[in-house]
Design brief:
By secondary structure, the chain is of the alpha+beta class. The strands form 3 sheets. Strands 2, 4, 7, 8, 9 and 10 form a 6-stranded mixed beta sheet that branches. A two-stranded antiparallel ribbon has the order 1-3. It is 15% helix and 25% strand. It contains 3 helices and 10 strands. The relative contact order is 0.25. It starts with 5 loop residues before the first strand and ends in a 27-residue tail after the last strand.
Length: 169
């Protein structure tokens, strides 16, 4: 219902979760800039809950954390940890396929860059294809119980200081 809003980033058609919209061009640039103000040292990153096929070993988790070689170069280091199934997650439509002979595992992966379909390509490269991908946090802003299609206004003063322009003197 709000006019002139633009996405700060993107989700592919098979992904779910948080998408930030803004009418502030400077903020949009800071949210999507791969270097400079929005690099791994100053931002909180994008956090994803990822349902993968199989149960990744500790070695696989370390590979994901260190960076994975993809066809367009090696990914930057990421944060990775195992999750119990995330609470309060809406049903997926269509549902994720269930196979009796293969267990699935939930991971939380935090990225500090944004290559095209990066999480999916990373998990596939280490032998654990992504079955479901939900972005739950972006640059300090959390999904926090929103359901598909819902939105909320985030006050500018609740954003991380690194995203805000310097105060005028």
């Amino acid at each position: 219902p709000i006019q002139n809003m633009y996405p700060a980033g993107r989700l592919d058609k098979d992904s779910e979760g948080l998408l930030l919209l803004t009418n502030d061009g400077i903020l949009q640039a800071r949210l999507t800039e791969p270097k400079g103000i929005n690099n791994a040292q100053t931002r909180e990153g994008k956090v994803y809950w990822v349902l993968v096929e199989g149960e990744p070993s500790e070695i696989v988790l370390q590979q994901l954390e260190a960076g994975v070689e993809l066809n367009d170069g090696k990914t930057q280091p990421a944060k990775v940890r195992r999750l119990a199934e995330p609470p309060q997650l809406w049903p997926r439509n269509p549902p994720v396929r269930v196979r009796q002979s293969i267990t699935d595992s939930w991971l939380e992966i935090t990225l500090f860059e944004g290559k095209n379909r990066q999480v999916r390509r990373m998990t596939a490269a280490v032998g654990h294809p992504t079955l479901r991908l939900v972005r739950v946090r972006h640059s300090g802003i959390a999904l926090a119980g929103l359901q598909p299609g819902e939105w909320r206004k985030v006050p500018i003063d609740s954003l991380p200081k690194s995203l805000l322009p310097p105060a005028k003197k």
